[in-house]
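Researcher: Structure prediction, please.
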Amino acid sequence: MITTQAFATIRALQRSAWNDCFPGALEDWDYYVAVENAAIEDFQWRYLAVYDNGTLVAVAPAFITHYRLDTTVSGVGKRLTTRLQRVWPGALQLGLYAVGSPVAERCDVGFASDVPAARRPLLLKHLLHAARQDADDLGIGLLAVKDAPSHDPHWRESCRAAGFQSMPSLPTGVLPLPYGSVDAYLGSLGKSTRKDLRRKLRAPGPRVEWRDNIDDVLPEVMRLYEATLTRAELQFERLPADYFTGVLERLEGRAVCVLYWVDEQLVAFNLMLRDEHRLVDKFFGHDVAFTRDHNLYFRSWLTNVDYCIQHKIAAYECGQAGYASKLRLGCEFQGNQVFFRHRNRLVNGLLALVKLFIRPDRSDPAMAAAISETR
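Model: Predicted structure follows.
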């Protein structure tokens, strides 16, 4: 008999059982403990579990928040929705229950290692039903799946059967690195990009320091984080200091923070997760006063590329922003979808109209180009 349960903490599920459902995941049980401990403002955590005769067979993270419908909009569209928000506060904000995580790269359901592929659609159906029931119990009308892989037929078919609408989400950039050197990587790029990066490399660069502890520079890291967040058009969550220190502490060598110094001034940092297969960029923060003169973004990019090549890491996963630069730098893109349904038919119908105007590919040509590559 299949049963389901929703928990408010990942500690309600055994570490080994959770990790068995996500073999090799960098964002594993310990990562979610660090996220919980950080107490990110305006987010509550849920964890969905599916059991077969009392045995855990599928799990997924979920969260509750107040969601602004224009979160993935940028450029002119963002300016228009910001004006609307000033005139009509709360017009674009809804209570949201979402399967997935605001601080994970993609939405994945984890299945126990002995679950055959043929049973996964049934378990996914039960998991979505459990999410709807949990959302109803908590009085939340809007249910979504955040950043499901576009080419996953189980997600697509299960969400369609449950009556969900869909729209493109922000694609995830991935740079494959089958190169023997940074110079070989540069040779794979377009002529103008290659020439520009080599010119930047000839200029004096900042001092680079790899750290697994940033307690002594945490105020400066958070200053850079807040400054970067203020400039960003696309940002879903605001991370507290405990997120950065907690991830570094709990992931024990699988998380690293790279610091960039000009003389004694910390001018940039880059929090990443790593294993022998991939380097995952979680957040890059920088001081805009130093960015142009010291080419901080491209310096950090080439530092990460060099690290991957030196350690024979096959892929640099570089997140969901800066698509214009990433297209030039040779990235490939993995498509993501948002699925959603409001239990109120009228609101659900209105969302069908709203999504025509707030799709992320409507306002950013580079993002639209990245999304088109995933189809």
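Model: The two ends are 38 Å apart (CA to CA).
Researcher: Thanks, that helps.
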